[in-house]
Amino acid sequence: MKTALRCLVVAALVCPSPSMAQVPGETFDALVAKVVDGDTIDVRRAGGHATIRIRLDGIDTPERGEPFSSAATRFTRAESFGRTVRVRGTDVDRYGRLVARVTREGADLSVSLVRAGLACVYRKYSRDPLLLRAEAEARSAARGLWGTTPQPRCVEQAR
User: Is 55 a catalytic residue?
Assistant: First the structure.
């Protein structure tokens, strides 16, 4: 019994979780295995079996049950599920998720969600001019989140 416990402890120390094994700044190609919600996906590196949970960098989509949450999740699924994407890690969040910019065929998923009016720029963590421009376009066109009253939580935070 003690030997088994020692083995488990050693394995936990030697084999970090898939997200923790990722280094911010690293870029890699991966297959999107699952869309958790509008701004969270699970990917699998080529030839790998473990999934890596990714939090899309620089944006915030409505939480489950809020207006446009389902639309944001559907958009992310349509743009990425089952497809190969390029992941560029920027950070690891407090939940152990790799925060990353995700692109497919050159299109940045964070920018696409914001431009469609399905996400806000997460200003606490990002001042990316591409995201800010995409949000300004969505606002002026009253797309998605920006065309509703009352406006969802993330829109209030974006002001």
Answer: yes
How is 75-102 classified by DSSP, letter by letter? Answer: HHHHHHTTSEEEEEEEEE-TTSPEEEEE
Phi–psi pair at 30, nearest 5 degrees: -155, 160
- What domain range is 34 assigned to? 17-158
**Mean pLDDT over each residue of the chain, to the nearest integer:** 86
Is residue 9 in some structural domain?
no
In one letter, which amino acid is 137? E
Catalytic residue among 26, 44, 53, 63: 63
Residue 21 placed within a domain? yes
Q: How many helices (H) and strands (E) does the chain have?
A: 5, 8
Whether 90 is in a domain gets the answer: yes
pTM more than 0.70: yes
63 among known catalytic residues: yes
Q: Is the pLDDT of residue 100 over 70?
A: yes
116 assigned to some structural domain: yes
Provide the residue type at 138 as one letter: A
